[in-house]
Amino acid sequence: MYDVAAVRRDFPILSRKINGRPLVYLDNGASAQKPQAVINAVTRGYAEEYANVHRGLHTLSNIATEKYEAVRGIVARFLGVADEREIVMTSGSTEGINLVAYGWAAPRLQAGDEIVLSVMEHHANIVPWHFLRERQGVVLKWVDVDMNGDLDPQAVIDAIGPRTKLVALTHMSNVLGTMVDAAAVVDGAHAKGVPVLLDGSQAAVHGPVNLDAIGADFYAITGHKLYGPSGSGAIHIRKERMDEMRPFLGGGDMIREVHKDEVTYADPPMKFEAGTPAIVQQIGLGVALEYLMGLGMENVSAHERGLRDYARERLEGLNWLNLQGRSAGKGAIFSFTLEGGAHPHDISTVLDKKGVAVRAGHHCAGPLMDHLGLSATCRASFGLYNTVEEVDALVDALEFCHELFG
């Protein structure tokens, strides 16, 4: 049985107060808090075990290298990937997607070639493709969501034309909570000979992911949302795609030999990992993923579905609250505005006075904001340590806002 009270005790920050009130942290979609196990691992890494990896033969270097390289296998297990050599360590999803843009797409795409995106992409899965549009004449094709915020897999597949070279989609919207039927998109795209990149920054946090079953060519995750340190992350790249890629960053570790007139590269995945990595952060990510797998991602998903259903019921009962995204199978993410014109920044500030932390702004999703006809929303995003009592605290704070702003 999932014991949320026990889980909360693993996160020291949850015991603090904000403005004299218990912290209700509902900004997990931006960054999640860290369990004590991760904090301990990072502290130990710097205080007792720090050294550079891959280069030394002394004791500390061996310890750091062993722990760092073990994370590759942990990530593979977490994502349901059979071969850990298909895992490239990155600073997060942004670097992972840029690696694909520079290392795979840039040398292959020509003017007039197409990349299919959905309108609800995070900027991290938009801007790298805009670089190719600006610099190489690549065409971006956009697929809209419906009135509930759902993305029809067939609409994505139908957008694929003879010059489409890549489909790049979020697996879960960071604004609407919409889950994309990734397997259906991958099957349809592969049937047309088109590879698929999935931004897993949100989806991998909230439930089990099995990439060997989904079959995506590229899948990026970021550590700071997965209860791990910032500056950590990874991307899964199928071997046949790795073989098609050129290196993105050059430097130490990604080479075999360097001479004045010749460079030979290391085998993947090291070929795509240049320079001294975020050693301690990645070790912390490994601990965070082990923590999640210890809880069981199915259990985490079930807990968050319960929060989602309760929050949906409570929030829909506020007839002056405008909710964005009403997908039946969405995650526990709620974006909203208040009738009457109160700005989301002001709403967020008032909620903070009540100890409730939410996000306000465009959430790095400009095209989706344009589609919704909004400049900004507030967003309450739930995680594995949140409770139904915190849903009630959010609703109470929103009712105070409504009274305050009229």
From TrEMBL:
* Record EC number: 2.8.1.7
Task: Name the Gene Ontology molecular function terms of this record.
Answer: cysteine desulfurase activity; pyridoxal phosphate binding
Chemical reaction(s) catalysed: (sulfur carrier)-H + L-cysteine = (sulfur carrier)-SH + L-alanine
Span of domain Aminotransferase class V: 24-394
Q: Name one GO biological process term.
A: cysteine metabolic process
EC supergroup of this enzyme: transferase
Look up the record and name the cofactor or cofactors this protein needs.
Answer: pyridoxal 5'-phosphate
The keyword Lyase belongs to this UniProt entry's keyword annotation: no
User: Which keywords belong to this entry?
Assistant: Pyridoxal phosphate, Transferase
Q: Which NCBIfam families match?
A: sufS (TIGR01979)
Q: Which family does it belong to?
A: Belongs to the class-V pyridoxal-phosphate-dependent aminotransferase family. Csd subfamily.
Protein name as annotated: cysteine desulfurase
Q: Which organism is it from?
A: Tropicimonas sediminicola
